[in-house]
Amino acid sequence: MNTQISSIIDMPATESEPVVMGIDLGGTSVKLGLLQGEQIIARTSILTNEYDQPRDAFIQARRFAEQALTSAGYQFEQLQAVGLAMAGVIDEATATLMETANLRAWHGIGFYRELQSVFGKPVAVINDANAAALGEACYGEHPADSLTFLTLGTGVGGGVIVGGRPINGEHGCGGEIGHVTIEYGSDARRCGCGKPGHLEAYAGAGGIVRSAQELLAESSQESLMREIDDLTSEKIADAAEAGDKIASQVVRQTAIYLGRAISMLAHIADPDVVLLGGAVTFGGHATSTGRGFLRSIREENARLSLQQIGTTIEINFASLGNDAGMLGAARHASQIAFR
Ligand SMILES: [Zn+2]
Questions:
Q1: How far is CA 220 from CA 147, 212, 235, in A?
Q2: What 3-state DSSP class applies to 100?
Q3: Ligand 1 center to residue 5 CA distance, Å?
Q4: With 0-12 CB in 10 A as exposed, 13-18 as middle and 19+ as buried, what is 74?
Q5: Which family does it belong to (predicted)?
Q6: 141-318, CATH topology level
Q7: CA of 157 to the centre of ligand 1 (A)
Q8: How many CB atoms lie within 10 A of CB 15?
Q9: Residue 73 φ/ψ region, left for φ over 0, alpha for ψ in the -120 to 50 degree band, beta for the rest
Q10: For the chain, domain boundaries
């Protein structure tokens, strides 16, 4: 397979700053990037399902690195470290994938060993949500040494950065914000993990659809959503944007749950910035529904939190999109290699 260098920033590499590589291993694609300081000098992505083994994907990544470094006037020797971001629970000592919804065939493989044998460089492995948090903290529109990141999608993931470094915790569960409990009643929903009342059961894509179905069943009010068979969080966002009252109520309810979770986290980590990324942000800054969603989250956090953190913490949408994980992986590699 040919690796295309999809872009080389028109800035020649300088001798002084080291080059690091970030690899973001996703269920669909593997994003690769070479960074020098804050500058991406080359990037590309390859398809995950073209590789039976992670080793084959890493060999392809190395080929890309060699080719891109040559184009930038470098040699492969000048690559200082490689960082890998991946989904799931990772054993820190060996970087073995312990638990994940995707990439089941890759379970039980020690990724440090594989990466090191392919690249022959210092390597670092990091959970993808922590990587995205680190990427946003270092390269996003709201950089901060202390930042909490929530990724809203099918699941709710998260990363907590304190003092410029991600908190992984003693069991690999630090920053697992989706599993914070926000409902305690006997009728609290079950999370995908099996436990009751977790944020993900309310603010994940499936949870949002369920909220809509419950509100539709309780109400006799007209709603555009009654005509939709396969309701999704995107269609709920569209209905809300078209002025649908029940859909707007779903958005607000989701915001309230997120505001509760953020308030809880704010009293533990007291970050400068809290960012919301992922696909389920109801349009983000681009729609009035998205902006209203953000406003409601801020209001709920302010309502529940100590005054010092109720309004001073910057709560906003993330800015790096799909690049955050790759950038964070590269940053993590430089933290490990140059500490
Ligand atoms: Zn859970």
A1: 42, 13, 20
A2: coil
A3: 39
A4: buried
A5: Belongs to the ROK (NagC/XylR) family.
A6: Nucleotidyltransferase; domain 5 (3.30.420)
A7: 10
A8: 8
A9: left
A10: 19-127+322-337, 141-318
CB count in 10 Å sphere of residue 286: 11
CA of 201 from ligand 1 middle (Å) equals: 7
What is d(CA 274, CA 150) in angstroms, rounded to the nearest whole number?
A: 8
Looking at residue 336, its pLDDT comes to 80
Residue 61 neighbours by CB under 8 Å, 6+ apart: 21, 23, 30, 32, 46, 118
For the CA atoms of 30, 140, 37, 158, what is the dihedral angle to 10 degrees? -50
Does the pLDDT value for residue 15 go beyond 80? no
User: Is the CB of residue 186 less than 8 Å from the CB of residue 209?
Assistant: no
Through-space distance between the first and last CA atoms of the chain, rounded to whole angstroms: 36
- pLDDT digits 0-9 by tens, 176-218: 999 999 999 999 999 999 999 999 999 999 999 999 999 999 9
What is the distance in A from the centroid of ligand 1 to the CA of 88? 13
19-127+322-337 belongs to CATH 3.40.50.1100 = no
- The full length of the chain comes to 339
